[in-house]
Amino acid sequence: MVKSQSKIIARYAETDQMGIIHHSVYPVWFEVGRTDFIKYLGYSYSQMEKDGIMLPLVSLNCVYLLPAKYEDELIIQTTISELKYSNITFSYEVIRVSDNAVIAKGSTVHAFVNANDFKVVSIKKKNLDIYNTLKNSME
Amino acid sequence: MVKSQSKIIARYAETDQMGIIHHSVYPVWFEVGRTDFIKYLGYSYSQMEKDGIMLPLVSLNCVYLLPAKYEDELIIQTTISELKYSNITFSYEVIRVSDNAVIAKGSTVHAFVNANDFKVVSIKKKNLDIYNTLKNSME
Amino acid sequence: MVKSQSKIIARYAETDQMGIIHHSVYPVWFEVGRTDFIKYLGYSYSQMEKDGIMLPLVSLNCVYLLPAKYEDELIIQTTISELKYSNITFSYEVIRVSDNAVIAKGSTVHAFVNANDFKVVSIKKKNLDIYNTLKNSME
Amino acid sequence: MVKSQSKIIARYAETDQMGIIHHSVYPVWFEVGRTDFIKYLGYSYSQMEKDGIMLPLVSLNCVYLLPAKYEDELIIQTTISELKYSNITFSYEVIRVSDNAVIAKGSTVHAFVNANDFKVVSIKKKNLDIYNTLKNSME
What we know:
By secondary structure, chain A is α+β, with helices and mostly antiparallel strands. Chain A has helices at 26-40, 45-50, 123-126, 128-136; strands at 4-9, 53-54, 57-64, 73-83, 87-96, 102-111, 113-114. Chains in contact: A-B, A-C, A-D, B-C, B-D, C-D. The interface between A and D is medium-sized, with 15 and 15 residues.
């Protein structure tokens, strides 16, 4: 199973007055993980959009186990946990490098849609090559 | 049951290159809803932090039903859906004013913690008045 | 001279670990001010983009006089300080409602460009009606 | 003269509906540059805050020369352009790796303040070692 690794350094702008990284930043990190995952498979999300396929979010969940702090070095581990013709689920773990602790876990579900009309499409029919690459990454 | 209403106008900075509001903005809007909910009960979250109680996130989920666009007028409806001694769950609906459509739903779970050491506390023991006010808002 | 007023409540997500609103939020507030200013003149920035005119930033400056805090109620005052055929300068003041203090000042310069090719255009030639409305707002 | 280099990959969440990186993101990138600059000198900004010194912004300016796009690889070059006892000016260049183009330039002025009371201090009196290190980096 393909698992991509994205290195993140927590930014000052991402902190809040509790002194920790604000929870709304984790979905942004997950997205960095997704970008790298797709790049790792030999595609790029930029290219997919130019090819007329977009991946808007259907749902998001995140569990916060330990707070992240400014300047923390973190690894976002990304995998595909489910692939259907019309949607895909990515799963993420946020790992703190200093002690290998998993500080957060989450997942996002995305529809495959046409860029021009936002209609849901079958990725298998629209682009079999991408479908097979995504499918194979799960093995 | 108390249900607070927060008016939001979607900001340009909140859009992404898909032409819609980025999904990471919804947790920020939920937080605006939470702030208003607590204010509506006669407290303020700023004051709670000064009194030594913080409400860090334990988990977050959001379902995206319809995209929001720049300049959309939206209402965030906030309620408490569960209250335990050590944590609280807020639920949210994002409603588009132009057609009353519910465009997103979500919830957040928060621990009650001490501001100085981030240790989980019983809100009932720590501040019975706040506990009762929160509890009563659910009826 | 037209001066629009936009009410803002500082959001928790906008704070940083210094306990104040992060400086990168002010350009977002300025943009809220711009949106309201254009709406006040009877247009909308959304409509201008649909009509093929975009206003990307050429430059930005901001002076921070006093910190803003979470839950602060603020007014963004927006005016046009300069209008040329190919670019426009907006000026902003951020006023704290509790004591009327000006806590920040700034300005942004924007080029008028075609939405399709990002080429700079003369707004006077492209849309005389908008040019005149903007010009008149300065008197 | 010390010039630090910070590598950035533009994030999807940082785009706006113009299809480019939103202008409010550049101050966040400058901050990443600052963090790396101070680390490069052998300190860390986290540590400086723990030692009771904060560097809130006094002013910010940014000139946008070319748009940045999603997935662009960028280098933030950071230097100190001015150092006084009570404030410091950092200067930044944002360079697009693909063609070495300078796509933006900016600077930020920061006051040296006490973490507990936000009073301006002389960094030379407060911490001569940091002052000398910063001063030497300009030669």
